[in-house]
Amino acid sequence: MPQGDKDKYTDKQERKAEHIEKSYERKGVSKKEAESRAWATVNKQSGGGNRTGGSGQKKSASSKEASRSDSAKQAAATRKAGSRSASLQDQTKDQLMAKARSKNIHGRSTMRKQELVNALRKAN
Length: 124
Description:
This protein is an all-alpha fold. Among the domains are: 11-46, no CATH class; 85-124, no CATH class. The chain contains 5 helices and no strands. It has helices at 11-26, 31-46, 61-90, 93-102, 113-123. The chain is elongated, with a radius of gyration of 29 Å. The N and C termini lie far apart (67 Å). Pfam families: Rho_N.
């Protein structure tokens, strides 16, 4: 693609550049400078001349499946680990209060949520 060739841009990118260019021209910028700034803006926002579809890397079906499987395993591990450490933090104050009541934690009625979490962790 020769420098300055706009064949690789989508219609949407071209419309956007035209709109930006007109805006700069209304502000008194020369036509050449306005066009230059408009295309620079489009390139920065969208990563250059992109045609929709087909420009990305191709992966084999088995590679995609392996990636999905790895991602699913990682997500499951994160959920499992998170449920242990953040389970008290994720509960409402009323739920924490009920647990504190069942464990007979003194002073629970005046505690804030974080104080209840800390007290319940100490109680375990």
